[in-house]
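Case study 2.
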Amino acid sequence: MEDAVARGRAEAAAESPGVRSPAGRGGALVELTATPGGLALVSPYHTHRAGDPLDLVALAEQVQKADEFIRANATNKLTVIAEQIQHLQEQARKVLEDARRDADLHHVACNMVKKPGNIYYLYKRESGQQYFSIISPKEWGTGCPHDFLGAYKLQHDLSWTPYEDIEKQDAKISMMDKVLGQPVALPPCSEPSFRALPH
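Prediction:
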């Protein structure tokens, strides 16, 4: 009886291509078929092998590499943000210094009404008092009575620009005026139009 069963299995294996016959008498109960019905569904190497310990090592390396990339990426982004913060701190410091200077200059003694757009010359008396004048040291010549401290232009926003920065500041203001003077192209209206509706 056993010989008949074994012979039947051998014949079935010979008729089905890709079927591996069991090894020896009384072999495996279930035959392994790489292509059931002629179709390879999965890789027998991956489905019939024991877990490869190298796979765990490769997975751990991949996770570690991902962690390193994420850390490097975050570091790069934080470095950019830190540089932007430093730049903003510098700008804030300059704004505060300019505001302090402008406030001090507005409290300087002056016997005239200051008008935006004009240049005023700062002098210091022997007593230590500072005052504004519209007469430049060049106009005084050698007879300038007091120490000259500097020249400033009063801007239309009532800020003061040092004489050496006037040209650069005027160029900036001129450029902004050109930008603001250009017509702005409005985007097309996305709201529904009711003009075509019957009354």
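The radius of gyration is 45 Å.
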